[in-house]
Amino acid sequence: MDRIRIIGGAELQGTIPISGAKNAALPLMIASLLTEEEVVLENVPRLADVMQLKRILSNLGVDIAVRGRRHGETEDDGETLRINAKNIIDTTAPYELVSTMRASFWVIAPLVARMGHAKVSLPGGCAIGTRPVDFLLNVLEALGATIEIEAGYVISTARHGLKGGHIVFPKVSVGATHTALMAASLAEGETLIENAAREPEVKDLADLLIKMGAKIEGAGTSTITITGVSSLHGATHAVIPDRIETGTYAIAVAMAGGDIVLQNTRTDLLESAFDTLRAAGAEVETVANGVRIARNGNGILPVDVTTEPFPGFPTDLQAQFMALATRGQGTSKIRETIFENRFMHVQELARLGARVRLDGDTAYVDGIERLKGAPVMATDLRASVSLVIAGLAAEGETIVNRIYHLDRGFERLEHKLGRCGARIERISG
Ligand code: UD1
Q1: Cβ(170) to ligand 1 under 6 A?
Q2: What atom in ligand 1 is closest to the CA of residue 338?
Q3: Is 420 considered catalytic here?
Q4: Separation of CA 329 from chain center
Q5: What is the pLDDT of residues 325-337, one digit of tens each?
Q6: Is the per-residue pLDDT at 343 higher than 50?
């Protein structure tokens, strides 16, 4: 199993290209199941989760071709996928394929909407709490589908198609909103979604669906109205920049010190996280096609963070901010309100000397001058990158084990950081 080796203490200087968003690319790829025509997706990141979804879609009969590299393009440019779901040969997504990635469960919505049937294994993914799918199943039922659970599979049927309905989510859910958008786009009549997720990835999915002929109003707000159409057509769409990757490298600069331009990204995608970074003492400045982050000389100030649905502070940056707070000049308070078990990185950060006290959904982090390198273990996707961030500023050698989590969500992380002066390498085997 591959590991990452880091020798801490080097400042970061230079530029880091930001990839397309994993959390947008996945639902966009899944949305291609809604049409018989070709969907072309540009700026798709090369990640293990994208590969896994390619396998799941291929297994359903979807043809996926990767367009060859064009003159002037480098490995920093995302992939262009040509996806054609004309001939769906199977409406089953098996356990072996779905169990490693929770988002793959979302194929249930376009399959039921277009084919009238789906059998999808209950999902797996990062072990960060119970992560049920009840809201997603309620969406399908609200639009007239039947749901049965049998031997770990959800079987959903709508023989005569879906019908518009009224959906009020009890809690904001990104996946349930994606599911509702896809299902309602091909349902007969109007669907009203209340308490919808406002995440930029939801807006990105709606933008693609609209290009495909869907009638959607209000995406990006809490209330979305969809007027169903009988069929959707092909479209071309570029995936938005990855705001979590952006925030992660921004935090890495705040942690290690230095001056970096993050390219091909947008500050409006994560204003709350940048506000917190400024409060921690980093300089954050919008530049052409990106953002510049610097921390030169001054120390890291303690932060007070509560995770919330967008536009609040993202849960997917909580672990990274905790790594930063371990070196704060005082006590930081970090409250996790989205997932109940998302503090598994605490014990690993403690191996580097971090002082963190947990009290229910809140972590109190007493900053210390220096972390000390140690072997640590990645437990989930975002937690694993928090250990890399900690290692960048720890004295001596940090080895991050089990980095397959990292490869699910961060494209060529060791290259991107290494080019900027970090002493980081992948050890294979
Ligand atoms: C997505 C993101 C993930 C991010 C999360 C929250 C992708 C691929 N993943 O995950 O990186 O951390 O949003 O921003 O985009 N819930 C239920 N029942 C449901 C669905 C969700 O109770 O049927 C709960 C969850 O347990 C959680 C909360 O709702 O407490 C939010 O989860 P949700 O927004 O659905 O997360 P995902 O879409 O799985």
Answers
A1: no
A2: 30
A3: no
A4: 30
A5: 999 999 999 999 9
A6: yes
The letter for the amino acid at 122 is L
Q: Which of 6, 60, 108, 126 is catalytic?
A: 126
Task: Report the C-alpha gap between 91 and 60 in whole angstroms.
Answer: 6
Residue spans per domain, the chain: 3-18+241-427, 22-238
Residues in Cβ contact with 347 at an 8 Å cutoff, skipping those fewer than 6 apart: none
Which ligand 1 atom is nearest residue 26's CA?
Answer: 8
Q: What is the pTM of this model?
A: 0.96
Which residues, in sequence order, are CB contacts of 334 under 8 Å at separation 6+? 303, 305, 306, 318, 321, 322, 325, 362, 363, 364, 365
Nearest ligand 1 atom to the CA of 201 is 15
Ligand 1 touching residue 135 (CB < 6 A): yes
At residue 125, the pLDDT reads 47
Collapsed DSSP state (helix, strand, coil) of residue 324 = helix
Token pair 């958008």: residue: 181
The listed CATH number (3.65.10.10, 3.40.190.10, 3.40.50.970, 3.30.2350.10) that belongs to domain 3-18+241-427: 3.65.10.10
How far is the centre of ligand 1, averaged over its atoms, from the C-alpha of 56 (Å)?
Answer: 20
- For a pLDDT cut of 90, what percent of the chain falls above it? 88
Cβ neighbors of 29 (< 8 A, separation 6 or more) are 41, 44, 50, 53, 54, 57, 81, 83
Instruction: Encode pLDDT of 286-338 as tens digits.
Output: 999 999 999 987 899 999 999 999 999 999 999 999 999 999 999 999 999 99
> How many angstroms is it from 331 CA to the middle of ligand 1?
29
CATH of domain 22-238: 3.65.10.10
Nearest partner of 139 among 103, 107, 165, 119, judged by Cα? 165
Q: Which is nearest to 297 in space by CA: 254, 345, 353, 233?
A: 254
CB 388 within 8 A of CB 402: no
